[in-house]
Amino acid sequence: MFIVDGHLDLAWNALELGRDLVLPPAEVRAGEAARGVNTRVGTCTVTLPALRAGGVDLVFATLFVEPARESSPGLSATVYHTAEEAHRFAAAQLEFYQRLVRTVPNTMLIRTRADLATLRAPAPGDEAPLGLVLLMEGADPIREPAEVGWWVEQGVRLIGPAWSGTRYAGGTYKEGPLTPLGAELLRAMEPYRVVLDTSHLAERAFWDALDVYASPVIASHSNPRAFVPGVRQLSDEQIRAIVVRDGIVGTVFYNAFLDPTWKEHREKHRVTLADAARAVDHVCQLAGDARHAAIGSDLDGGLGREACPAEVDSVADIGRLAEPLAALGYRAEEIAAILGGNWLRLLEKTLPP
């Protein structure tokens, strides 16, 4: 089974938290404990060995930098005040990924359908590579819309205009529309068939963006509002709109997005992968099929082992979502689609040759 995680902040963890992603999580945890590291992001759950141990074949790896006006103590050491700073910090994360694939065996950036074919069919006797597709989370590093082409040349294949509010759009906890500059950004993305990631868009900006953008649309890491109220989640109407565009919704493995009664970093055992399967199932029920649901775990995006379902010690466990999905009656081929096949279909449709 080909497993894809549609949202991980690998570079942010390496550069902001100093985590050595080539080590197993246990070694990272031991090192942080010895140094007395105490951050709001929780216990390490994602490294390259953990991804391989879980049979994860492909990751949507983010370029994420935090705006100074939204930063929280202990979350990011590097925050930006200007578009120029955002560009510089995101470029450093880009360089991290470029260096990673040069120095770590059997890792590769996926830029084209040919790259994807290589990933899916390694030479006989070769270990399957781990593929990385670059996703920009919050578009302020794009200093002006005309710069989209440069980021595409560097390998960015998905862009989310907002994290919190940006120059381009209202975002999480910063309600607002798609701005005129945001509409210009989307028009600049269109010729490259860059995938529009609507996760974190404010709801008004979400609908504005769908009116403007004709190319593929997803929510890389968003859960249904039907179970957990709040602007960070998707309404049923938003999910249906993504489905109509043949888009995909990636379920987040964050307990606070799965159970509204969960208390931060407490009672891990109260939320299970059955709750994640319920979120996936809700998307499937709205869609009428299993073609539009996937995983966007965000396990390293400021949560940690304490804040993900009981069965999940690290990203090595995300494939265990298959068990509660089977219990809900999903067939093997539907489970394979949810765990990776749907993201693959999106990439086959949107990547350049």
Task: Tell me about this structure.
- This protein has helices at residues 10-17, 25-35, 48-53, 83-103, 113-120, 148-154, 180-189, 203-212, 236-244, 255-258, 273-287, 322-327, 332-350, and strands at residues 3-8, 56-63, 66-67, 79-80, 107-109, 130-137, 156-160, 169-171, 174-178, 195-197, 217-218, 249-251, 293-295.
- It has 353 residues and is of the alpha/beta class.
- It starts with a strand and ends with a helix.
- The mean pLDDT is 94.
Shape verdict: globular
The biggest beta sheet is recorded as: 7 strands, parallel
The assigned structural class equals alpha/beta
Task: List the total number of helices.
Answer: 13
Question: Percent range for helical residues?
Answer: 25-40%
What does the average pLDDT come to?
94
**Percentage of β-strand residues:** 15-25%
User: What is the C-alpha radius of gyration, as a whole number of Å?
Assistant: 19 Å
